[in-house]
Each structure stands twice: as C-alpha cells, then as structure tokens.
Amino acid sequence: MKRRLAWSTVFLVLGLALTGLDATTRTAAPAEDTLRVVYFSAVDSKGEQVTDLTAADVTVKEGGKDRVVTSVRPATAPMHVSLLVDDAGTGGFQPSVAQFLRTILGRGRIAIRVLSPQPLRVTDFTEDVVDLRAAIGRMGPRGRIQPDGDQIIAGVSEAAKELVIYKAVRPSIVVLSASGETVSSDLADEALNALKNSGASLSVLYISGVDLGRVLGDGPRQSGGMIQMANGTVGVPAALTKIADHLLNQYAMSYTIPDGVKLNERLSVSTSRKGVKILAPSRLPDR
Length: 287
Prior knowledge:
Blueprint: H1 2-28, E1 34-43, E2 58-62, E3 65-74, E4 79-86, H2 94-104, E5 108-115, E6 119-126, H3 129-137, H4 149-165, E7 170-177, H5 188-198, E8 201-207, H6 213-223, E9 227-230, H7 236-248, E10 251-257, E11 267-271, E12 277-279
Parallel strand pairs: 4-5, 4-7, 7-8, 8-9
Antiparallel strand pairs: 1-10, 1-12, 2-3, 2-11, 3-10, 5-6
Helix pairs in contact: 2-3, 2-7, 4-5, 5-6
C-alpha cells in the first residue's frame, strides 16, 4: 500500500509540474510577426535581368517604416497571366503573342482577351496547348476596329478583379496596345484600385505614338510591372521578350511586419547594388 501511494504521489506531483510548465510556456510565447511576400524583378543599366540578388542587397520600407527582409529567392510559384490584346483588328500582334506563350508555357496559366473594341475573352486561364493555339488563331486580321480608349481601361479592371476571384498567388496582367487609352477617363481610378487590390503586376507594350494615360502609364510603376515601347510591329517581338524575361525572372521577397502593426499599401524597395533598378510595386493590397 505504501508503494502504491508513493507512486501515486510521484505521478500527481509530476502532472502538476508539467501542467504548470505548459501554462508558463503558453503565457511566455512571443507574439508572431506577419510575414509578407512580394514579387519583383531587377534589371541592370542595359535593361538585362539581374538574377543573383540576395536579402542583403535589398531594403524595404512599408508605410515609410523599415521592415526586416527575411529572404529574397527566385520565384517558383505558378503564374496567372492575363493577356489583353489591343491590335485594332489588324492581327499584327499574333506572331509575337504566339512566341510569348511558347516562352512562358509550363510556368503557369494564361487567359487572353482581345479588344473588339470591348474586351472579349478568347480563352479562360489554361495551360493547355490546344486551347492556347485556338486562342492565337482568333487573333488574326479581323477587319478594322474603331478604337475606344475606355475599353482597354475596362479590360485591365476586369482582368484584375478576375485574378482576385481566382485567388492567384503570383498574378500579372500584360497589355499589348496599338491604340492606347482615353487619357482623361473617369474609369482610371477604379482600374488602378482594382489593380492594387489584385496584387498583380501590370506590364505594357505599346506602339510608339500611342497615348498611355494613367492606367497604362502609371499602372506598371504602381504594380511592379514593365513598360516597353515598340517602333511599329517590327519591334514587338523583342519588346515582348523583355516582358517575358521580367516575369520569368521574378524574385519572391519575404519581409516581416511587427505584431500589432497594420498593413500599409505604400511600399518602397531599393537595392545597394550599383546600376541595378528594382521593378517592384509601390502600392500593395491593404489586406
């Protein structure tokens, strides 16, 4: 009886000790910081992609406050690329789009809209070669289309909202424009806010002489995208290749936000590497 009592006492004391330890551990556990991931790319003075940046090379400010960069690594998450083609019905972008799709195929899903003049979907997000080939076939000469500068803005807004619905992790919008946008359109604020809320980068290829306006002009700078000008359709393949390189060579950067600090939409990313330009968003979803 004495032995059973002794062991019972030991187990009781040990149980109380462990219970106390567990409670102490829970009480003393530090609050967790928020980890935020942002995608960006970097180019050198010749416009070529820089692919060897590390966390030590990058500085981040969110809402004007320094944040701790925990990692900078090549992006590997599958992309969602929403392509918006404004060729005024000429079919002039068709060969370059085909090459662009071949370049990024296997790295994510692609959706395509063609302005006619309103944005018409020719394929939903897919990585199926047959579907993409059929979509390219629908981008040939279709007869002259009267440009409507508001429609390309609406196309960007529609694509951005769709990316939110798809919960795309690494979203981007690529616009090819031979007509441009309505510079003073009232739709610009809505489109830029939709772009911010989607977290997508907006990259724009335009033919020289085209008016970019606020969405096509400011959108890439706000979202971490790229702007490329082509001198006529002959310059489109090289310009679109630059955009493909930008998407394929993105970094995934992680940084921490202290516990209790609200997310801020204003972001500034810089590098100590001389001659290197960072293409990162300056506006983030405030969620």
